[in-house]
Amino acid sequence: MTEIRIYVEGGGDSGDNRARLRQGLSSFFNSVVAIARVKRVHWNIIPCGSRQSCYEDFCNALISHPTAFNILLVDSEFPVEGGRCDHLRNHDKWPIAFSENHCHLMAQTMESWLIADRSTMQSYYGSRFQDSAIPNIADVEQIAKSDLEKALYSATRHTQKGEYHKIQHGAELLKLIDPILVRQRARHCEILFSTLEEHLDNI
Length: 203
Fold this sequence. Notes:
Distance between the termini: 8 Å
Largest sheet: 4 strands, parallel
Helix content: 40-55%
Shape: globular
């Protein structure tokens, strides 16, 4: 395989917003992108908008890009119990017929990755960022999606940049946060990095 294609939930319907998310994630995965470049493996992140569109685009890619390493990357939405494929079968009712290596989760949502690096969030939002509003839990995957949304609103609403915005702020923060910290605090992020690194090692 000479291509990695990651189909990711998010970016909305705007081409500009999808480009922002693509750039943010490519920066976040910079260490893997660097290995891919050395191995002459093409790297492609495809923001797909809605969750269902992401799944459908990924399934189509298994047919249209059979020689690529295609990956589905979506929010888990809920705590992950058991395998990643089983989680999506149970919660999304998707008839998944591919291996765990192709199925990856942002648990419980992409914002979990952002708060894993609180000091970067503080620097990004400035002195009026209310760090105390963010749950101080080592395992960020344990924070419910609804609780995290409320925490981000409380932490950012009085800052100069204003209330957290998923596309504008999230994409910028992905360029800034430390992937090592995120891998340490978000198990499923570590699984994704390890899967990509192992795949490239075997090329």
